[in-house]
Amino acid sequence: MQALRLYANPDVRDYLIIIAGMAIYAIGFTVFILPHEIVVGGMAGFSTLVFFASGGHIPVAVTMYAANILMLACWYRVLGRKFVVRTVFGATILSLMIGSIESYFTSRPPIVADTTMSVLMGAAICGIGIGLYYAHKGSAGGTDIVAAVFEKKANINMGRTMMIIDIAIVTCSFFLPFDGDMDARIQARVQTILYGWTSIIIYSLLANYIVNLDKQTIQFLILSPKWEEIADRVTHESGRGVTTVGGTGFWTKEHRELLIVWCRQYDADRIYEIVRRIDDTAYIIQSEARSVYGNGFDPLKAKPRKIIAPRRETDAQ
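RE: above sequence
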């Protein structure tokens, strides 16, 4: 009973899901990707570069944690206390999880022998883990820190910065120690780089899908002679607002009120059920709303744009 009460607390639930997401990511990366010597993006990818460049003497988990703490210490004032505390927690948990299983899986043959299948499986599992802890405001540091600094200092989009850094990290795997001539290096390294880029695409898309799953906004257009009762029930039972728009049927010349409802994806079934109970012949149009800002949805944020002053004629001369 006490455990249920704790889970009902939103903060406790968020931290539990963040830990679960990081455990899933640690499994996907350490079990399926690292044993095949594939370098992925983020701090895990950078730490993998250090691991293989040092001949396996510097564990991935050690580099991850040390680099994260160093970057947070350097940019503490820029990032703010809240971001730093959350990132320290995430980086600590993830480093401990990877460190606890890393040596076991890197000292044995891969569980899945086929590289392609293993990388695809690992990228999908990593994407699920990243999506879970991002959706609950978790952060494992790494490229998140660099991207956050660029966003605050230069107003550059975080997602774009992270993608550029991830691609650069994977590309650097070309210069890892290799026994063979340049032709053999190109043949071997290009293949692993392609695996790395593919994994970035897979886990980025999957993580983005999971993060936005609960945030997906649905728009309902409802037409029914019992519109007033439907609007009342939707407002009181789902907690979502209803807007009415007057209209007239062209053929019948009858006046009708059209109901407009915006809600999250998880509210859609409840609204369908309310309408079905009241009027199962009602017309319902459901569509996805790309973005809804305002009370009950995402806050409206406008980033200031840099204004470049026009050059004066004297300056041009």
